[in-house]
Amino acid sequence: MMHSDPPFDTRAHYMALMARKRLYGGIVLAIFVALMVSGFILTNDRNAGGFWDGLPQIFDFPAAVLADTIPKLDRLPGHFLRYFPSLMETVNIAAVSTLIGAGLAMLLSLLSTRGLARWPRLIPLFRRIMDIMRAIPEIVVALVLIFVLGGGPVPAMIAIAFHTAGALGKLFSEVNENADLKPVEGLQSVGGTWFQRMWLGVVPQVSPNYFSYALLRFEINIRASAILGFVGAGGIGYDLRNAMAWGQGRFDEAAAIFILLFLTIVVFDQLSSHVRNAMIAKKGGH
Amino acid sequence: MADAALYASADRLFARKKLFAFGLPVLVLVYLVYIVFAFDLPGLAERARMDNARTLLSDVWSYKTHVTQDNRSGEVEVAIEGERRGTYAPGTEPDWVSIDAAGTVVDLEDGHVVRFLTGGGFAYEVPDFGLIEARMDGRAVVSNLEEETLPEWISASRTRFQVETSHGRVSLTRNRTELFRYFPGWELFFFTLDSPYYGHGVFEIAFGDRIDPERANIAGAWQDFWNNAMWRHGDVAWALFETILMAFLGTFGAAIVALPLAFLSAKNFAPLLAVRFAMRRVFDFLRGVDGLIWTIVLSRAFGPGPMTGALAILLTDTGSFGKLFSEALENVDGKQIEGVASTGAAPVLRYRFGVIPQITPVLISQVLYFFESNTRSATIIGAITGGGIGLLLTQAMITQKDWEEVSYYIVLIVLMVMAMDSLSGWLRRKLIRGV
């Protein structure tokens, strides 16, 4: 049986569809622009100094730092030497917290991956724990711990490790989902405990991915540990705050710290991307 | 012969694996031992202030009411947390405090009764222990107990005498006699004492008679709650909004700035090597300088506030986005661009219809991912540059006594970040499927 309806007007339908799509796109764009503009005006009003007043002054501070530093260039190596230990502390905080955080993340992620979990019923619980650990900004834990433990690297270390465990745990559990279960079953068939199954059956498969994520996190953690130092938790950030407090005329120390921090971040950034690229290349070659 | 070589190579492989399997943990262990000493963990036990931890923990879930007698004037004041806004008006004191000319009597329940002495001092009846009396003798504090046999919950010196029991804490100094009584919960969370709605239940406010004749119940209650002078719910909500706004402006501003720049630094779009190289160094510089330094530099120019934070996020993320976007651009499929070009489209249209649709999913997912993580960064940057919830948090922490407010902010921050997390996940799914 043939329908005798008029032929369906594909072209008109398509044009109508496009027009509607364009309209929706336009509305979304308009809302977005309105939000950006009104947000900018709002923050501009709430700021101590306005955007347009501040814009010409943006280079005043860098210029002041330069003006203080250039006559005392000969002192710069001395400053570098002086602040190197605190730089080491900042890097150490990042390294230890990445190590501890990655260890915790490994455990949490294995406990919250379907098919691998020790207690399958508790998977939602461990996931929630990771969500909360990830949601708490480092500064919150750090400030509370500074109150209890006093200033120094330990509060920062614990705070960053805490956040890292949550952040890496999520990434790790995504990696675990793709792990091959055959080695795990093999180990189970010969009576391996849960720990043995994970350590010998899963971890060797996923460790390259773990490592690459942990390296990326290490990079982020160096920045975090510098920032936490600025609010009182030791390391180069703390020295930076003190150097800033010297004020105009003595910014040469701040300049030395800026340079140290910049170089450290760039070096570890390059190093980690180099190592990760090399690992990917190696994996592809096999 | 071949077997021998095979065995040898297998042995080498095993040896290497063994070295890795044992060497790596040993290396980590050695590093951790070094850290234990570098961070002075043994000394931490001495430096740790366990009394601070105790105040913090008890403050988080409980509050205290102060009953204070000025020893000179004899005036007695009852105030929640000792704050002016939590002070009971004379005559409205809670029923466990009775103030009259004969002296103030505080009933701490279970037989614990404290009587304030006129002219300074108190008599505390502790069950199973006896009466503890302390008063001012000239300028010195004296008590009825032997100094040598004081239990550890009583501390005495010439200038101060303090008794701390499970039911409260009483102390005497020259100027004042003071009693703290602890209650679970967050005090005056909904209404302060000066609000007419204080002490009324939800049901009563919603359906009961008009409590304040001037205003409708729900509107008035909302007004008093929102403007609660102790908890400042309105300001807190505003600060949360400001934090999200900082993250929003910073992230999306950075994306808008980075997109055109990314074209200049992508191999297949920028023919000039010099331009490409320069752009990449700019991105590396922006990322390398880091949010902390940008925040410091910018707050010198723009002063403290949320815009400074937004601009710091914008600058750092322009670097990150520039790198990510240019990588995405280098991976686009040339066929679509050729297809669009074959219809005679101008370069701008070629980019619009040949390139943008390909990179939109990557772009949106990266931007949303950064938006979510920047909500957290905005909290931290706000603490440095003075804007949003980060500022409120540090302010509450500096006073070192408003830990209930600190925990309130922490709960709100966690909820905010989790909400942004699910929002960005939802948007990502929605937008990328739609594209």
From TrEMBL, chain A:
PROSITE patterns given in the database record: ABC_TM1
Residue spans crossing the bilayer: 23-42, 91-111, 132-150, 254-272
Domain of life: Bacteria
Membrane is among the record's keywords: yes
Residue stretches making up the ABC transmembrane type-1 domain: 87-272
SUPFAM superfamilies assigned to the protein according to its UniProt record, in alphabetical order: MetI-like
Topological category with respect to the lipid bilayer: Multi-pass membrane protein
InterPro entries registered for this protein in UniProt: MetI-like, MetI-like_sf, PhnE/PtxC
Pfam (any one): BPD_transp_1
Keywords: Cell membrane, Membrane, Transmembrane, Transmembrane helix, Transport
One GO cellular component term: plasma membrane
Family under the similarity heading: Belongs to the binding-protein-dependent transport system permease family.
Keyword Transmembrane helix among UniProt keywords: yes
MF-aspect GO terms: ABC-type phosphonate transporter activity
Main location: membrane
Protein location: Cell membrane
Protein name: Phosphonate ABC transporter, permease protein
TrEMBL record, chain B:
Gene3D superfamilies in the cross-refs: MetI-like
Coiled coil: none
Pfam families attached to this UniProt entry: BPD_transp_1 (PF00528)
Membrane topology recorded in Swiss-Prot or TrEMBL: Multi-pass membrane protein
Top-level taxon of origin: Bacteria
Location of this chain's protein in the cell: Cell membrane
Keyword tags: Membrane, Transmembrane, Transmembrane helix, Transport
GO cellular component, one term: plasma membrane
Transmembrane segment boundaries: 19-39, 236-264, 378-400, 406-427
Record-level Gene Ontology MF annotations: ABC-type phosphonate transporter activity
Residue ranges annotated for the ABC transmembrane type-1 domain, each copy included: 240-424
Family: Belongs to the binding-protein-dependent transport system permease family.
The protein's name in its UniProt record: Phosphonate ABC transporter, permease protein
Organism the protein comes from: Salipiger bermudensis (strain DSM 26914 / JCM 13377 / KCTC 12554 / HTCC2601)
Lineage, highest ranks first: Bacteria, Pseudomonadati, Pseudomonadota, Alphaproteobacteria, Rhodobacterales
